[in-house]
Structures are given as C-alpha cells and as structure tokens.
Design a protein that fits this description.
The protein is of the alpha+beta class. It has a single domain, classed as Conserved Hypothetical Protein Mth637, Chain: A. The chain is about 15% helix and about 30% strand. The chain is built from two helices and seven strands, in the order ββββαββαβ. Strands 1, 2, 3, 4, 5, 6 and 7 form a seven-stranded mixed β-sheet that branches. A hairpin with a 5-residue loop joins β5 and β6. The longest helix is centred in the middle third of the chain and has 14 residues.
Length: about 130
Amino acid sequence: MSARDGRRGAAGQAVAPSARSRPDARAPDWLAPAPGGVTLLVTAAPRASRTEVAGVAAGRLRIRVAAPPVEGAANDELVRFLAGALGVPKSAVAVTAGAAGRRKTVVVRGASALAAQRLLEGRAHRA
C-alpha cells in the first residue's frame, strides 16, 4: 500500500500518486486558480504576424498578438485567441488588469488549470 494514498497497482504493488495529485506539484507562476476558472498573467506583444503563444518570460505567459494596440484591438484579439485555445466563449475571458499596457491579468471562467498549461504544449497558435 502506498504511504501517501493507500492505492495498490494491478499486482498488489504500491502505486505512487500522479504529479497532479501530489501536494508538491506547483502550477507555473503565470497561472493561478480563480473562482470558477483560472487567472493568467500575460505579456502581450502586439503587431505580430500571427497570434500565438511565444513561451514564458519573467513569470508571465508571453503571447504575440496580430493586432495593433489601438482602441482595444490587441485586447480583443487576445480575448478571441484565449477563448478559442481554451474552448470557452469569448464572454468567459476578461482582461481584469493592464488593459492599456503589455502586462495583463486575464481571468478565464470555465477553463481548467490543465487546459491553460496545455497552451504551452505545442505552442497554440492561430493565423
């Protein structure tokens, strides 16, 4: 029996808990749970050739945005991209801080932390 969770494998051997269930497994700095969803810390890079995840820098998810930072166009494109990538409606995505700057806080209702972490896997993108 595993000392942590009491589970046994098929042959009666102790099974270690998965990384998701371990208390020491940490979420990335750019991702935090929020009521009913997740909060993302994002650095937006406007006027890119296409909208895509560009990795992580300084503890924030870096997203290239194919729109200029004029009259909210970059924020609108960021919301469209995140909604599509996370499989939620656009109304579930809100820029809660940093609307006028590159460093933004975005709340996504109805998205799981696992789905948000998958943004980096394969680097989600949209032409």
